[in-house]
Write a structure and sequence with these properties.
By secondary structure, this protein is of the alpha/beta class. It has 8 helices and 13 strands. The longest helix is centred in the last third of the chain and has 16 residues.
Length: about 325
């Protein structure tokens, strides 16, 4: 069943980013002048939240940030994007919330210096009442592996309520196993390295994730489905989703766009072996389209549309 009312709840990292567009990356001890500069919001969960909102979803973001001079920049950008932000440590000082991003003109390649996550996250304890409020009317919970003391209880409560949990598996982080056990769909990047050298999709499936996928830039997205969730009579448990070829202007945040679009689609279509191909094809189209434009939201004037018709088996 589809619904336009289901909320996307994104949980994880938000940062304030200083983005420079440069002709090339600087060498050691070299000073260069950038073509363009801008202040923006960053972080996988925050970017995915903005993407889902741009695609028409109602979006809540739970992302610890803390008190700093950069807070007003983040709050204003999220508000303008239509994202309702909940910060569990809003009163705690955060000494280094700024990240620096270099984007190479022409190729769209990037380099990032992160300001890191805020302090005090390990002391957060969400009450049952607050969890209930955050999960009200939610159709999908997106987690990015950051802020585990917040993400784990929300993902666990979502699983108990039958709400799909989507993991943006950008990289392995200590303690991620505690979150993965509550995940229904994991979309991993090519940079994700599973513990002990295991194959990424194998590790995710063995950890109990029902649906797993791995993106790799312009290469097809690998998809596998666990036997645990595969309906009787359906043999296909592995396939690939082709990525459209586009002229790349900027790859910054393309993975976040992929996850935000996937979250929007899951909230509208639900998650099953039947809807998964349509969810991923849509997310891939939106992410590829975003690479044709600068910035995480530069593509939103004419985004691809989500097909809400009957899914094909």
């Amino acid at each position: 069943m589809t619904s336009s009312l289901q909320v996307v709840l994104a949980v994880g990292l938000v940062t304030a980013d200083v983005v420079h567009v440069v002709d090339r990356m600087p060498a050691v001890d070299e000073k260069i002048v950038g073509r363009q500069q801008r202040l923006d919001v960053g972080g996988p969960a925050a970017n995915a939240a903005r993407v889902a909102a741009a695609l028409g979803a109602t979006v809540r973001l739970v992302a610890p940030f803390g008190r700093s001079a950069a807070r007003s920049i983040v709050a204003e950008a999220l508000g303008e994007a239509g994202v309702r932000w909940h910060d569990p440590i809003a009163r705690l000082a955060h000494p280094s919330p700024i990240s620096t991003v270099l984007v190479t003109a022409g190729t769209g390649e990037r380099a990032v210096i992160s300001g890191g996550g805020p302090p005090g996250v390990d002391r957060i304890s969400l009450s049952r009442r607050r969890i209930d409020r955050l999960l009200a009317d939610v159709g999908v919970v997106l987690v990015d592996g950051h802020g585990l003391p917040v993400a784990v209880p929300l993902a666990a409560a979502a699983r108990d309520r039958g709400i799909p949990v989507l993991l943006d598996a950008g990289s392995f982080k200590p303690g991620l196993e505690r979150l993965v056990e509550h995940v229904d769909l994991a979309i991993a990047s090519a940079d994700f390295r599973a513990p002990d050298g295991q194959v990424t999709l194998d590790w995710l499936l063995e950890a109990g994730v029902g649906y797993v996928a791995r993106s790799a830039g312009p290469a097809p997205v690998e998809v596998r489905i666990s036997d645990r969730v595969r309906p009787a009579g359906r043999r296909r448990t592995a396939y690939r989703i082709a990525v459209p070829h586009v002229r790349v202007v900027d790859t910054l945040g393309a993975g976040d766009v992929l996850h935000g679009a996937a979250a929007h689609a899951v909230a509208r279509l639900g998650l099953s072996p039947v809807t998964l191909p349509r969810i991923l094809r849509y997310a891939v189209r939106v992410a590829a389209h975003s690479c044709r434009h600068p910035g995480v939201l530069g593509w939103t004037v004419d985004p691809p549309t989500l097909d809400l018709g009957a899914a094909q088996p």
